[in-house]
Amino acid sequence: MAVTGGTVSDTGVGGLTLGGGMGWLTHKFGLSIDNLESAEVVLPDGRVVLASADQHPDLFWALRGGGGNFGVVTRFDFRLHPVGPEVHVGFFFWGADQGREGPRAARNAIPGLPEETGILMAAAMNAPPAPFVPEQHHFAPGHALVVAGFGSAEDHAQAIAPIREGCPPLFEFVGPMPYTALQQMLDEAAPWGARAYEKALYLDDLSDEAIDVLVEWTGDRASPLSFVPIFWLGGAYARVGEDDTAYGGRRTPQYVVSIAAVCLDTEALTADREWVRSVWDALRPLAADAGGYVNFQTDPDEDRVRASYGPAKYDRLARIKAEYDRGNVLHRNMNIKPA
What are the two backbone dihedrals, phi and then psi, of residue 184, each rounded to the nearest 5 degrees? Predict the structure, then answer.
């Protein structure tokens, strides 16, 4: 039994959920907040309340996407789903010398993948030194697509076949693994103690122009851990009503693109922070709107926070903030100011 978690196994449930929460199960079961039944909350005035559809419903709405602006959640009650325990994984990697063809093959295949899959594209990355990667390709620059299948092996094989046909990868790994191993698959990409910086935006489509940007900036990273994870948001995600939760992104099929600097020393971080900003600036004219996923924002920028929620949703959040935290005690976050 599982619920939508992140793509790194040690991501904290609190921050993940309160901002939305996306991972391998988003396509099949929606965001973490879409599976939240209730939350126990310690409010800034010291009261402890249970927020749900029936109790403190405005607070419950705000917690599902509004971040840590309203209280400290000490318990989450999630709706669980049967998953695995064994799932099917396809990892496809295209080298930098395969240019734009690999990312375009991934782009062309993603929207047609069934809901029984979890999808993550990793652009502008280096191949990991993992056992399933041929040694001669360790740390090779390029782009990857990971497709996790939660149905049968036959269904998964059929789903991933067009990816190979679109552009044969430099190497691939296809096989079964425990769901818990899938959850740990990217842990080495976010090691403890790493210095990090991140900006994100939404794209309606991975257009040729967007792929050109990602390919152009592939080799300009100082750290081999810096990369661009891209989440496809479709399926169950897109069936939730636009105003059912406080989540800032539109509930239409789209991509969320995170440009992430992950560095082991401050010198590399200084260089890759500028890399993140340059890639973000290049993609910004192609973005679906002026906002971004609040869990993927490092800079506490009031204008970006407002843009992420849109005027109507931000105003509602500000009124709820005034009710539960008028003094803005909880402000070291992507802050929503009380109305």
Answer: -100, 0
Q: 177-219, pLDDT tens digit by residue?
A: 999 999 998 888 888 889 999 999 999 999 999 999 999 998 8
Buried b (16+ CB within 10 A) or exposed e, 39-51: bbbebeeeeebeb
Asked if residues 69 and 323 have their Cβ atoms less than 8 Å apart, the reply is no
CA angle (264 as vertex; 261, 270 as ends), nearest 5: 50
H/E run at residue 50: strand 48-52
Q: Give residue-wise pLDDT tens across range 91-113.
A: 999 999 887 999 999 999 999 99
3-state helix, strand, coil in the chain (%, to 5): 35, 25, 40
In SS3 terms, 136-185 reads as HHCCCEEEEEEEEECCCHHHHHHHHHHHHHHCCCCEEEEEEEEHHHHHCC
